[in-house]
Amino acid sequence: MFWCCALVSGQESSEIYLFDLEEKDSTISISNPINISNSAGYDNQPSFTEDGTGILFSSFRNGQADVAKYFINEKYRVWITNTEANEFSPMSYPGKKKNFTCVRLNEDETQLLYKYTYKKKPAEIMIPNTTVGYYLWFNEKTLISYVIGDTE
């Protein structure tokens, strides 16, 4: 059995669903939808943790975007950030099970890529003075990024 993560969205609000994905005789079927975000407003940008046991995603609460983690086997969600900033696009940090990254929109309007630990230590800016819009870890040493604005 395989796991599949899908996003069902609309303009005003969105939800994140987890499905069972099964391939049999060249036919793929999905079943057992579970709403893993289950909250009013914006729930978006899911990504599997590196070990495949969880899903990180952005979700609004108290008027701002924080990062949540859904534990697949245990079937529960926890909030893993609680800052004054808005966090988007969370992903596991390659090779480091205790870390994740996300784009953080700070109160001063700076938008930077940060690295967090699950142990609630202070977040670390990964690329200073660079406004990251979207990113993807190719491997432990290679980051692909869309940078907003003038890069010269």
Topology:
Layout (H helix, E strand, L loop, with lengths): L1 E8 L4 E11 L2 E9 L7 E6 L5 E8 L2 E8 L4 E4 L6 E7 L6 E7 L5 E7 L6 E2 L6 E8 L2 E6 L5
Antiparallel strand pairs: 1-2, 2-3, 4-5, 5-6, 6-7, 8-9, 9-10, 10-11, 12-13
Please tally the helical runs, counting DSSP H or I stretches of 4 or more residues.
0
Strand arrangement, largest sheet? 4-5-6-7
Major sheet size, sense and barrel closure: 4 strands, antiparallel
What's the pLDDT, averaged over the residues? 88
Number of strands: 13
Q: Give the termini separation.
A: 48 Å
Question: How would the global form be characterised?
Answer: globular
The percent range for helix content is under 10%
Order of helices and strands: EEEEEEEEEEEEE
Structural class label = mainly beta
Low-confidence stretches: none
Radius of gyration from the alpha-carbon trace, in angstroms:
16 Å
Describe the model.
With 152 residues, the chain is an all-beta fold. The protein is 0% helix and 60% strand. The chain has no helices and 13 strands. It has strands spanning 2-9, 14-24, 27-35, 43-48, 54-61, 64-71, 76-79, 86-92, 99-105, 111-117, 124-125, 132-139, 142-147. The strands form 4 sheets. Strands 4-5-6-7 form a 4-stranded antiparallel sheet, with no helix packed on it. A 4-stranded antiparallel sheet has the order 8-9-10-11, with no helix packed on it. Strands 1-2-3 form a 3-stranded antiparallel sheet, with no helix packed on it. The chain is globular. The relative contact order is 0.12. The mean pLDDT is 88.
